[in-house]
Amino acid sequence: MDIIQLLIQIVISVIVISPILWLVGRALAGKHNAKFTDAIWIVVLGTVIGTIVGALIGGLVGGFLSAVIMLFVWLGLIKHFFDCGWIKAFAIAVITVIVFVVIVALLALIGIGIGIGIGALGI
Q1: What is the mean pLDDT of the chain?
Q2: DSSP string for the chain
Q3: Crossing angle of the two packed helices 86-109 and 59-81, in degrees rounded to 10
Q4: Cβ distance 120 to 17 under 8 Å?
Q5: I need a labelling partner for 36 at 20 to 30 A (CA). Which of 12, 58, 100, 118 fits?
């Protein structure tokens, strides 16, 4: 992946995922802990670190290993930026993915497709 592709992925991820992550974070971690800028930082750092980890660890076993590593990276970023524990970070991550999938499914049902998938979440 070159730098232009990475920048495009970061911009799209920030536009699509940050608002959902922020809203779920506000609901679960509280509005004083979950700032919109924190959600942006989580998405930017998660995307960049995910790209680096994916590039360094390849293959079938490496793909599984990088997914496990990225799960903990995303949870760690949520935990750090939203000032919550591991369980609450996990709940925020799961609910964010569910809300994202529901929104994408609803958009698809009404005929609006977006050119990203779950891969944009770094999963």
Answers
A1: 87
A2: --HHHHHHHHHHHHHHHHHHHHHHHHHHH-TTT--HHHHHHHHHHHHHHHHHHHHHS-HHHHHHHHHHHHHHHHHHHHHHHTT--HHHHHHHHHHHHHHHHHHHHHHHHTT---S--GGGGT-
A3: 110
A4: yes
A5: 118
Phi-psi map region of 83: left, alpha, beta (phi>0 left; psi -120 to 50 alpha): left
What's the mean pLDDT in 79-94?
Answer: 96
Report the Cα–Cα distance between both ends of the chain, in Å, rounded: 17
pLDDT digits (tens, 9 = 90+) for 19-47: 999 999 999 999 999 999 999 999 999 99
Query: Which has the closest alpha carbon to 122: 62, 73, 59?
Result: 73
The number of angstroms, rounded, from the C-alpha of 121 to the middle of its chain's C-alpha atoms is 4
Question: Which sign does the torsion angle of CA 23, 25, 29, 31 carry?
Answer: negative
User: Cα–Cα distance between 84 and 116 in angstroms, integer?
Assistant: 29
DSSP state at residue 118: G
